[in-house]
Design goal:
The N and C termini lie far apart (44 Å). Strands 1, 2, 3, 4, 5, 6, 7 and 8 form an eight-stranded mixed beta sheet that branches. The protein has 13 helices and eight strands. It has one domain: Vaccinia Virus protein VP39 (Rossmann fold). With 375 residues, the chain is α/β, with parallel strands linked by helices. One of its GO terms (molecular function) is metal ion binding. InterPro entries: MeTrfase_7 (IPR005299), MeTrfase_capping (IPR042086), SAM-dependent_MTases_sf (IPR029063). Pfam families: Methyltransf_7 (PF03492).
Length: 375
């Protein structure tokens, strides 16, 4: 039951191209990406070019699968190529490295890559790099640009204290930390601080001087303390990691399918940082100069989609359950096994569909965009 300690072996977005896959349930990351693409394009327009380089090397860390990562890489390469064509006599080749944990569905990613564009037309050479971005992945000074999109809020591990029944940080009755007691939140915050420090130190080694680090991650406004990960009350209640999730675990417990320890040993390894926490990490790293650091709020879905789901709550419950499957199924399955994990998602779907009052509310996701130059 303590398999969630070894997240590097099991944490990944659900692969494939079925209804419960990440590729089919990444509307919120796509919205966040659409919001930040103009910022990304602006960063590329203003960056110093690397003259004399035979190839420009770009890495997408935490790439997962699906259209988002491929469309972003296409935008980056197209924008960089345009800069070189306008400002230089020599246009280099481009190398794109798609990196994620070994548990990621690289097969689906590269099948999508093959169909995304004809090999002769695709403007870069692609490679996969399995490994955790909390460790070194590339040789010193190899990369000219690194992006990490909707990935860095996932932690490297659940803090040990949270999984210790004798610890004040034992997270009893909850799957996540929003609204949890101070000891639990503090343990997560400490893990988040250590992880971000490790991430930045590794990128400091890998990115060439003058190179760009561009990050999009889930975050929270500075006005909110860490125990309030999600901002307004409606978002806190409706987020898929909170109310319906805890109710689904409680249903399994009440039905005698699991015991209390099985419920309490499961914790979602995500932490929404504030701008202040991110700035503090960059200041300590000393390897980067922040060009842009902004918080944005995006809606979970369109108004039209909400109206459609209000007419058909069952389809809403199914959609929310598929979203949870897409992001959490591998770690839930590692914790409960295949049969019980599916029972959990069924309870979640039922709970979400039955809460008509909550369906009428809107959940907002907070995201933070960071653009920094390697000094």
């Amino acid at each position: 039951m303590d398999s969630t300690r070894s997240l590097h072996r099991i944490l990944c977005m659900q692969g494939g191209d079925h209804d419960g896959s990440y590729a089919k349930n990444s509307e919120a990351p796509a919205s966040a990406l659409a919001l930040c693409k103009p910022l990304l394009a602006g960063t590329i327009r203003s960056m110093e070019l690397f003259h004399g380089e035979p190839s420009i090397r770009i890495a997408d860390l935490g790439c997962a699968t699906g259209h988002n990562t491929l469309s972003t890489m296409e935008l980056i390469v197209r924008s960089l190529r345009q800069r070189y064509e306008e400002d230089c006599d020599h246009v280099p080749e481009f190398e794109a490295f798609f990196s994620d944990l070994p548990s990621n569905d690289f097969n689906s990613l590269f099948r999508s890559l093959a169909s995304f564009a004809d090999t002769m037309k695709r403007p870069y050479y692609a490679a996969g790099v399995p490994g955790s971005f909390y460790h070194r992945l590339f040789s010193k000074g190899k990369l000219h640009m690194v992006v990490s999109l909707s990935a860095l809020h996932w932690l490297s591990q659940i803090p040990d204290a949270v999984l210790d029944k004798q610890s004040p940080s034992w997270n009893e009755g909850r799957a996540w930390i929003d609204g949890a007691k101070k000891e639990v939140v503090d343990a997560y915050a400490k893990q988040s601080e250590e992880d971000l420090k490790a991430f930045l130190q590794c990128r400091k080694e890998e990115i060439a001087e003058g190179g760009i680090l561009f990050i999009l991650m889930a975050g929270r406004p500075d006005s909110q303390q860490a125990e309030n990960q999600l901002g307004d009350p409606d978002s806190r209640a409706k987020h898929p990691f909170t109310t319906s999730m805890d109710q689904a675990w409680e249903d399994l417990l009440n039905e005698g399918l699991i015991d209390e320890e099985a419920r309490d040993m499961f914790n979602i390894p995500a932490y929404m940082r504030s701008i202040e926490e991110i700035k503090k990490a960059f200041d300590r790293c000393t390897g980067f100069e922040i060009q842009q650091l902004e918080f944005f709020r995006i809606s979970e879905h369109s108004k039209e989609k909400q109206e459609e789901w209000m007419r058909d709550p069952v389809s809403y419950g199914r959609a929310k359950a598929n979203l949870v499957r897409a992001t959490l199924k591998p770690i839930v399955e590692a914790h409960l096994g295949q049969i019980l994990s599916e029972e959990l998602f069924k309870r979640f779907e039922k709970r979400a569909a039955e809460d008509i009052a909550m369906l009428q509310k809107t959940c907002f996701y907070g995201v933070i965009v960071v653009c920094a130059i390697r000094k």
